[in-house]
Write a structure and sequence with these properties.
The chain is α/β, with parallel strands linked by helices and 316 residues long. The chain contains twelve helices and twelve strands.
Length: 316
């Protein structure tokens, strides 16, 4: 909460690029071009934001600023339907296909990573995913054991078990998050149903309007819109908990034991299942994408962001 409402949303300048996906949609990339060369290939950082975030999310800006300070290049990927208008970051730009994004969607990241690897063959590619974006990144890594595109990866506050996390959020503090997310998620689904006959045939409009939990919303909209039978099918097939044992890429995962998105039993399961190349760091406190430190509340440091960028620098 502190970071969201007090941190600047314009720490770094962007060069925007819109690329066409293989299925004919637009994918909005915001590039940070600060590499200094220094006689060697400049690392290229790919960032994936969380649910209803964008390249202007404060944690994205924070990590891109850290990357810029190291002379790296960077690319913030805006998931479909999440890109903000640079002149009005409250306005989300609509996409052109009858689909949006979800926790298990990995084809867009795959497309971006391969595109950047082809453009900059000498630059080591590293990646960070936050919350939903972290789940998608871990799933992609598990889907591609032995891949050589991404040299190292890191995640912050991943909801490893989507079904357990959805149920866990049906608490007083969880409903605070739910209310804010559903405020923008439901209009997106209803707009898709109005714009696209294919989406209208899949989304249960009335149930979407009435949904008050992630499970209800995903059962009525996210799941069927993206080819899943229902919410449980979506959660089961998309949770990164089922993929962490297949990862072969050096990966750092940072979570807090008091994350309101994550029931306490899940992190021990991650520890037991993860591949040896996955390093799990769990702090007693930190909340969901919080991890605030420093002696002065008016000038805090964001510990997890510092950690993942430093850790990635040591892997390239």
């Amino acid at each position: 909460m502190w970071g969201r409402y007090t941190r600047p949303k314009h720490l770094v300048p962007f060069q925007r690029e819109i690329i066409e996906t293989p299925d004919g949609d637009d994918l909005v990339l915001d590039h940070l071009a600060s590499g200094n060369g220094a006689g060697r290939p400049v690392p290229h950082l790919i960032l994936l934001h969380g649910l209803e975030g964008s390249s202007y999310s404060v944690y994205m800006q924070g990590m891109l600023a850290l990357a810029a300070a190291r002379g790296w290049h960077g690319t913030a990927v805006n998931f479909r339907s999440c890109a903000r208008d640079p002149n009005n970051i409250l306005f989300m730009m609509p996409n052109k296909r009858p689909r949006m994004y979800h926790s298990g969607e990995t084809t867009d990241f795959d497309f971006v990573a391969r595109t950047l690897a082809a453009r900059f063959p000498e630059s080591p590619i590293i990646a960070v995913g936050v919350s939903l974006g972290g789940n998608a990144l871990l799933k992609w890594l598990g889907e591609h054991p032995g891949q050589a595109i991404v040299k190292a990866a890191a995640t912050i506050s991943v909801p490893y078990d989507l079904a357990a996390g959805s149920t866990h959020l049906e608490t007083p503090i969880g409903r605070f998050y739910l209310k804010n997310f559903l405020k923008t998620l439901k209009p997106k689904a209803l707009t898709a149903a109005r714009r696209f006959p294919e989406a209208a045939a899949r989304i249960d409009v009335e149930r979407t309007k009435r949904s008050e939990t992630f499970w209800e919303y995903d059962d009525a909209a996210t799941g069927p819109l993206h080819g899943f039978h229902d919410a449980l099918d979506y959660y089961t097939r998309s949770s990164s908990l089922g993929f962490v044992d297949k990862i072969t890429t050096p990966t750092l995962c940072v979570s807090a034991a008091d994350d309101p998105f994550l029931p306490p039993p899940i992190l021990p399961q991650v520890k037991d299942r993860k591949a040896p190349c996955v390093e799990l760091v769990v702090t007693p406190r930190g909340g969901h994408v919080g991890f605030i430190t420093g002696p002065h509340p008016w000038k805090p440091r964001f510990w997890a962001e510092d950690l993942v960028i430093s850790w990635l620098a040591g892997k390239i």
